[in-house]
Amino acid sequence: MAETIARTGRGRRGTTAPTRAHRRLPFAAQSLAVAVALLWCNGALAAETQVLLLRGWFGVFSTGMDGLAAELKAKGIKTEVAGHLYWSTAVKEILKERAAGKTSALVLVGHSQGANNVIDMARSLEPHKVSIDLLVTLAPFMQNPVPANVVRAVNYFQSPGWGAPLTAEPGFHGKLSNVDVGDDWTIAHISIDKSARIHAEISRDIAALSQAKEGPQDGAANPLTAAAPQSPQKKFPPQAEAQ
Q1: Cβ pair 206, 134 in contact under 8 A
Q2: Which class in CATH covers the domain with range 49-214+222-235?
Q3: Other residues' Cβ atoms within 10 Å of the Cβ of residue 98
């Protein structure tokens, strides 16, 4: 009799008793929901874009970095701004996050000495196989070549004036753009970080990268991560405005 009840799932009073399979269903459904949630969270962490802005010497003349940070935060982009001496600490923090499994897109932006130091950051991360999705330099001085782990680099400089075109080290297969702002009289070394037009270009590039990382359509090429030859120098429009 007991064997019959186990097979039919019916008790002595005619009610249906839960079988083992029935009891497993709620747990299985909950497990599936948890797995889906974890996958979604992991995807969100991987898609998140992380931006670090470095000011120049003493941070006195690079207040435009704070303004740019506010603009990016308003768009929902995770952004941090710091003095250029923070760069070595930032490298350690990035490596710690990568060791914990975080694989967010990485953007480094710097002004003056901060521009030199974001290149130093990229070079320090290269042996650890950490890619820099976008590197932006504003009027760097006596800068080193862009390392091979940079996917895209944009350099704003003045000719004649402060700064020079960036070069890339051997093995670089990304895209390098040198933007000469020498024709714009409103831009000087201490104001290039405050240029509304440059801010707009940087914000557009970062927003495009963020969208591409969050979910490019199947089969669609990602213009920011696809390898491209180094681009020729281009002149900045003379009507640019300083903020």
Answers
A1: yes
A2: alpha beta
A3: 16
Q: How far apart are CA 56 and CA 65, in angstroms?
A: 9
Paired tokens of 62: 């690079």
CA 233 to chain centre: 24
Q: Which amino acid is at 55?
A: R
Rounded Cα gap, residues 42 and 60, in angstroms? 39
Phi, psi of 10 (to 5 degrees): -110, 135
Strands 152-157 and 134-138: parallel
pLDDT tens by residue, the chain, 243 residues: 433 333 334 444 444 455 554 444 454 445 444 443 443 344 444 458 999 999 998 767 799 999 999 999 999 999 999 999 999 999 999 999 999 998 889 999 999 999 999 999 999 999 999 999 999 999 998 888 999 999 999 999 988 777 789 999 999 999 999 999 988 888 988 899 999 999 999 999 999 999 887 654 333 444 444 444 444 455 554 433 333
**150: closest CA among 107, 179, 207, 89?**
107
Phi, psi of 45 (to 5 degrees): -65, -40
Q: How far apart are CA 14 and CA 9, in angstroms?
A: 9
pTM over 0.90: no
Q: Could you tell me the two tokens for 101?
A: 């499994």
- Tokens in use for 200? 């707009």
What the block records as the tokens of 94 is 């990035």
Pairing of strands 49-54, 234-235: unpaired
What 8-state DSSP symbol labels residue 59? G
Using CB atoms within 10 A of its CB, is residue 211 exposed (0-12), middle (13-18) or buried (19+)?
Answer: middle
Hunting for tokens 């704070």 — which residue is that?
Answer: 66
